[in-house]
């Protein structure tokens, strides 16, 4: 069943869109990521213009993240104070990211640079996470092997410290603010929730327990992506409401399923699965950049964004 999307100006299969939304919702509930790192490239692949995919994908992430965070709130695995600090940095980063996106769109280079952003970030994060997760699984398999979660590093020497009771941490607010700001920029430019960067940063940089990381990540993602969507709608007019609604319907259901699956797997197994997905999407995007396109020329008018 085909449906016409007015802002994207393309016709797509209705069930396909809802299925994509459901898949991203499952990832959101399982891993604490918005799922935009997978959704936005998939929208590229089915013919949605990158500018519309980025802005609308961020909108869908809000819905699936709300569904996921509600489930984690019931389990009391959300650090509200840490979420607030991450959010403060994220809002500033999102505002800066939308300005950068507008400049790239005006130059006509947004399609290429968004794809390059995906390849670079997904490649680095996926590789690091995959290697560390495999090491964690090997350590867990050795009887008597104990791993210290809280290791003192440069983060613990920074000023302006705050106590985060739910996470059991007493650290500076500067690293969480920086992580939040980076995620905000990526949300605006790439149409992602930023969980694929925020989750490993919260675990390995801040030393937060994995069970708290997922819910806290989703809490920050909700507000940053909502803010990003609003800015894109006002400045670029690239948010397709019909597309967002169809993705939303699948995403809300998928998030509840993903949360249930996530509770049945060990933290190390979840991180390996997430790393594998990140690397898979990275490889597909890199291949798209390297392969010779079927259409060498475009009939779009010069300067069209």
From TrEMBL:
<protein>
    <recommendedName>
        <fullName>Probable membrane transporter protein</fullName>
    </recommendedName>
</protein>
<keyword id="KW-0472">Membrane</keyword>
<dbReference type="InterPro" id="IPR051598">
    <property type="entry name" value="TSUP/Inactive_protease-like"/>
</dbReference>
<keyword id="KW-1133">Transmembrane helix</keyword>
<comment type="similarity">
    <text>Belongs to the 4-toluene sulfonate uptake permease (TSUP) (TC 2.A.102) family.</text>
</comment>
<feature type="transmembrane region" description="Helical">
    <location>
        <begin position="241"/>
        <end position="258"/>
    </location>
</feature>
<feature type="transmembrane region" description="Helical">
    <location>
        <begin position="12"/>
        <end position="39"/>
    </location>
</feature>
<dbReference type="InterPro" id="IPR002781">
    <property type="entry name" value="TM_pro_TauE-like"/>
</dbReference>
<feature type="transmembrane region" description="Helical">
    <location>
        <begin position="213"/>
        <end position="235"/>
    </location>
</feature>
<keyword id="KW-0812">Transmembrane</keyword>
<dbReference type="GO" id="GO:0005886">
    <property type="term" value="C:plasma membrane"/>
</dbReference>
<feature type="transmembrane region" description="Helical">
    <location>
        <begin position="270"/>
        <end position="291"/>
    </location>
</feature>
<feature type="transmembrane region" description="Helical">
    <location>
        <begin position="116"/>
        <end position="137"/>
    </location>
</feature>
<feature type="transmembrane region" description="Helical">
    <location>
        <begin position="85"/>
        <end position="104"/>
    </location>
</feature>
<dbReference type="Pfam" id="PF01925">
    <property type="entry name" value="TauE"/>
</dbReference>
<keyword id="KW-1003">Cell membrane</keyword>
């Amino acid at each position: 069943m085909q449906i016409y999307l007015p802002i994207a100006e393309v016709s797509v299969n209705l069930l396909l869109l809802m299925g994509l939304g459901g898949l991203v919702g499952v990832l959101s509930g399982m891993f604490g990521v918005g799922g935009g790192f997978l959704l936005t490239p998939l929208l590229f692949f089915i013919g949605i213009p990158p500018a519309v995919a980025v802005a609308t994908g961020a909108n869908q992430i809000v819905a699936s993240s709300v569904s996921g965070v509600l489930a984690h709130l019931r389990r009391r695995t959300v650090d509200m104070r840490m979420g607030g600090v991450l959010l403060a940095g994220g809002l500033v980063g999102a505002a800066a990211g939308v300005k950068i996106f507008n400049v790239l769109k005006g130059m006509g280079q947004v399609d290429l640079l968004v794809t390059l952003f995906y390849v670079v970030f997904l490649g680095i994060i996926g590789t690091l996470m995959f290697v560390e997760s495999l090491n964690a699984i090997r350590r867990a398999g050795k009887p008597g092997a104990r791993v210290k979660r809280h290791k003192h590093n440069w983060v613990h020497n920074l000023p302006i410290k705050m106590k985060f009771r739910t996470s059991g941490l007493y650290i500076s607010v500067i690293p969480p603010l920086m992580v939040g700001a980076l995620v905000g920029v990526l949300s605006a430019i790439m149409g992602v929730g930023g969980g694929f960067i925020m989750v490993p940063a919260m675990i390995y940089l801040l030393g937060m327990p994995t069970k708290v990381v997922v819910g806290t990540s989703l809490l920050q993602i909700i507000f940053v992506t909502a803010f990003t969507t609003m800015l894109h709608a006002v400045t670029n007019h690239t948010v397709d409401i019909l597309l967002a609604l169809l993705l939303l319907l699948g995403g809300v259901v998928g998030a509840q399923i993903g949360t249930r699956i996530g509770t049945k797997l060990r933290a190390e197994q979840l991180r390996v699965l997430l790393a594998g997905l990140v690397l898979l999407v990275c490889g597909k995007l890199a291949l798209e950049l390297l392969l010779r396109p079927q259409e060498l020329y475009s009939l779009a008018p010069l300067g069209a964004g």
